[in-house]
Amino acid sequence: MQKIVEELKRLISFKDTTSAGDIVLIAAKEPKMLFYAYVNKIERDSTRRDEWWHVHFTLLSVPLQKMTWTLRTAQFSGQEIFTMGGEERFVKAVDFDENGETQSSAEKSGKTSSPLKRIK
């Protein structure tokens, strides 16, 4: 999963934080999945002593699907890879510019070593 996350960070510009209204990328190695979700809201889980949050997502799929995961801040902001049901997961908000586009760190620095090219 670490290799997948490293490659994603080269291809996509991510935010350091995640808030309601953000679009996040969710990745898992098993079962293989890579999809976007809209963050509807983030609510504190008051039943736990430590800081855990109910993160409400809408998967951007057809049909749209709603789900809620209970996560720590480091887990829903891409600071750590975590497990659910014994399988690794990664969640991080995508950083869109004012035109609604995202730009990889390689493109920002002018070094486009990826075989994927942006179409404008």
Overall description:
This protein is an alpha+beta fold. It has one domain (2-107). Helix content is 16%, strand content 35%. It has helices spanning 2-11, 73-76, 105-109; strands spanning 23-28, 33-44, 53-59, 65-71, 82-84, 87-93. A hairpin with a 4-residue loop joins strand 1 and strand 2 (33-44). The chain is globular, with a radius of gyration of 15 Å.
Number of strands: 6
Number of helices, counting only DSSP H or I runs of 4 residues or more? 3
Strand content: 35-45%
Indicate the radius of gyration in whole angstroms.
15 Å
Uncertain runs with pLDDT below 50, 5 residues or more?
Answer: 112-120
* Percent of residues in helices: 10-25%
Shape descriptor reads globular
Topology at a glance:
Layout: H1 2-11, E1 23-28, E2 33-44, E3 53-59, E4 65-71, H2 73-76, E5 82-84, E6 87-93, H3 105-109
Antiparallel strand pairs: 1-2, 1-6, 2-3, 3-4, 5-6
Task: Give the gist of this structure.
The chain is an alpha+beta fold. It has helices spanning 2-11, 73-76, 105-109, and strands spanning 23-28, 33-44, 53-59, 65-71, 82-84, 87-93.
Task: Give short descriptive properties of this protein.
120 residues; alpha+beta; 3 helices; 6 strands; globular; disordered C terminus
